[in-house]
Amino acid sequence: MAELGLNEHHQNEVINYMRFARFKRGLCLKTVDSCFQDLKDSRLVEETFTVDEVIDMLDGLRTVVHSEVESELINTTYTNVLLLRQLFSQAEKWYLKLQTDVSELENRELLEQVAEFEKSEFTSSNKKPSADLIKPKLAPLNEGGSELLNKTVACLQEENEKLKTRLKTIETQATAALDEKSKLEKSLKDLQMIQGDQKTDANQDIAELENKVAALKCQFEKTLNDSTANQKFLEENLVTTKHDLLKVQDQLSTAEKELEKKFQQTAAYRNMKEILTKKNEQIKDLRKKLSKYEPED
């Protein structure tokens, strides 16, 4: 007899489900057969039919069969979901997490194994007695539940021991950390005392530097004031020098004018002016004479 690799209880559950599935499959096939029979009884009353009539009958039959098969497939899917829900609900009560492999649903070898199992279980020669086909009741929660609880308790105790060991390790580490903290605090106090002495010396040095800076500042301000006074004095001298320069330039201009006037009043200047006047008149006469001999256009 073919086996599915399950214990007797689970294998009986599989047989019950397969019996339910065979029953639903038989109803579906009967429904399809009735669709064809209805077509024969209602439409096939004449001896000859046209092509359009045959097409119309086949289209109507296809619609009815398609609707019936689709409805049955959808119902089968929902039924499988409800079956999985029962299994998962029972697993969750024991804090178990089940997993499924959808790819195995199309494993041809496994499908053939299930088909062989169904054939061996439901053929007329290999049917089991009716007493074995009664749906078994749930077993009381004694042995299986106690075993699972014992395993859970053992796991919790082991985890508790691990936590205790870890706690001792943490306590040891905490004690060492506190000792280290005390040492660091002592070192910090010593360092603060040393820094306090150094801070006093540093304050004295800072005071001396501040005094030197103040003296340099006073000296710089004095030098700056002297420079400002010198700059003001130089600016006043520059203004006075500019005025004197303008005055000298004016005097030079006046002297040049008087000198030119005196030069014009001299005999040499008058003689030169008379000579230039005569030369200009001679040039004019020569131009008039030359113009007489120039050809007319």
Quantity of strands, as a count: 0
The run of helices and strands is HHHHH
Q: Proportion of β residues? A: under 5%
Average of the residue pLDDT scores: 82
| Separate helix tally | 5
**Cα separation of the termini:** 152 Å
What would you note in describing this structure?
This protein has helices spanning 8-43, 51-93, 108-122, 143-264, 267-293. With 297 residues, the chain is mainly alpha-helical. Helix 1 (8-43) runs antiparallel to helix 2. The model is unreliable at 129-144 (pLDDT under 50).
List the helices and strands and how they pair.
Layout: H1 8-43, H2 51-93, H3 108-122, H4 143-264, H5 267-293
Main features:
82% helix; 297 residues
Structure described in brief:
With 297 residues, this protein is an all-alpha fold.
